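ASSEMBLY PREDICTION REQUEST
Request ID: AP-0331
Submitted by: J.K., bench scientist
Number of chains: two
Total residues: 606
Priority: normal
Notes: Please return the full assembly, not individual chains.
Input sequences:
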Amino acid sequence: MSLRLRSTTPTGEQAREALRGKPAAEHRPSENVAKPEGEIAFSISDLNLWYGTFQALTNVGLDIPRQQVTALIGPSGCGKSTLIRCLNRMNDLIPGVTIEGNVTYRDADIYGSDVDPVEVRRRIGMVFQKPNPFPKSIYDNVAFGARVNGFRGNLDDLVESSLQRAALWDEVKDDLKKSGLALSGGQQQRLCIARALANNPDVILMDEPCSALDPIATLKIEDLMRELATDYTIVVVTHNMQQAARVSDYTAFMLTDEEITGQLIEYAPTETMFTQPADERTEDYISGRFG
Amino acid sequence: MALANSPEGADLARALRKRPFRRPGENLIQVALLLCAVVSIATTFAIIYVLFSDAIGFFREVSFWHFFNPGNEWQALIDPRTFGVWELVVGTVNVTLWSMVIALPLGLAAAIYLSEYAHAQTRRFLKPLLELLAGVPTVVYAYFALTFISDDILLPLLGGRISFFNSLSASIMLGVMILPIIASVSEDAMASVPRDLREAAYGLGATRLEVAFRVVFPAAISGIVAAVLLAIARVIGETMIVAVAAGSNPSLSFSPLETIQTMTGFMLQVALGDAARGTTDYTSLFAVGALLFLMTFVLNVGAQIVVRRFREAYE
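STATUS: Completed
Returned structure:
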């Protein structure tokens, strides 16, 4: 087992000191973690994360398959957003974060000491909970990534094809100069997806992409996720169990209990998870008994 | 069962009725606050009235054309008197220009550093330190500019190419004076750009510098322009530094190496001299003051129009 420590501030060191010997350190990873078939995109093992002295992830380990949709579910505060943000080193931006453990993307260690997080984020795109288009035109929103990454092709074509893949082109093709903020919430979120697609990433991480949207907009995004999964690896955090059941191939259930924050309880093909959960707590959660 | 203190019917209607003098303290405070507001507004209007009424007195003696003719020199206090105001306006523009050349890049760089790069603890320590610069009395700056910047640094460095009283030393000092305004107000504007937007840009593979210049800067531009305007207004209105360090020799020159006189510098000179009330020497003070007022006013209005056009509103 290889353990790696990355500490952004002295508080990370103090966090480890303070937590040494607590139950979290003795936590055993869950046994109900399936090994997906086929190619693996992310391989996560022994992942621990602290915000200052607060431990948010405890011994998380799972493999995320390529070109499939993987859903992370669980009640609020279970660490699912924290986990997804580890996959493109988004947590690096938060002061006082300490990350320990292994995350590899197609066998490359993304937390390696010689890895540039900017390069990681170019290949692993992200869509956020609240639609966050830049206060720029629709065109400039989609072209943003290409511009900062020194794209040398035809920008107009890239913008068009990205908007088409995000199923937004027909609605906005006549006013690409309009501000991205003038769109409806659902359109804004698809604009954010188009913006991520324009970078030509391998993976799209979606952190509760529908939680701010109405049911019809939600349905459109879900259809889009299924479509995109033929070309991209998709990881989606969701509060909504029906959504996980509808769109995902694999589902991971996370939980924070009295003693251990941010643990992985169960990971299985979605169908198995929702029909024959192995852990009692998973069953309680998916049948709506808590959360 | 109804509660004992909850009346019904006509009693309830009476209980709910307005009673204007029930809380006299409340009314008193309201009147006092209104008076405070009125005092500041009335003072402003009184200043404008005095400024323009005396300026009108000036223009009874001296024609508009003479005042604004770029061919005329500004020689208000000794005969033959000529009142070509452009020399003073150019003097003011001269120090404004050079002080902005110094303070704008430094101030914006400081703001970007504080808002995008510095750790929270560093920022908590550095920002008040920077703002301390704003608390130095300008007369201290003025003599520092003359004795240290001009005499000890610029003269040995540039030799005969620069006058003892020069616009550059004043501009450098003004630049230092307004640095905290530009840095601090811009930093406030940049810090209030939502984290969402930064995360979106980082998520697309932008570097810190790209996030600062392509996302945060355009979204904060209205606040940044406000900071720059505030700084320009301070420079245009600043008197002590320019009067002491830049000299009192009006000139149509934009060169930083020469002796000049600004509008405020002249106004101080008149105020310290023995110009009698009602003379043209005296009223020229108000003509220059009124023009100064109009300049800052136009600057403010113009900048607001520009900002409204170009800002990237994020809400």
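REVIEWER COMMENTS: The domain at 90-120+130-314 of chain B is CATH 1.10.3720.10 (MetI-like fold).
SIGN-OFF: pending second reviewer
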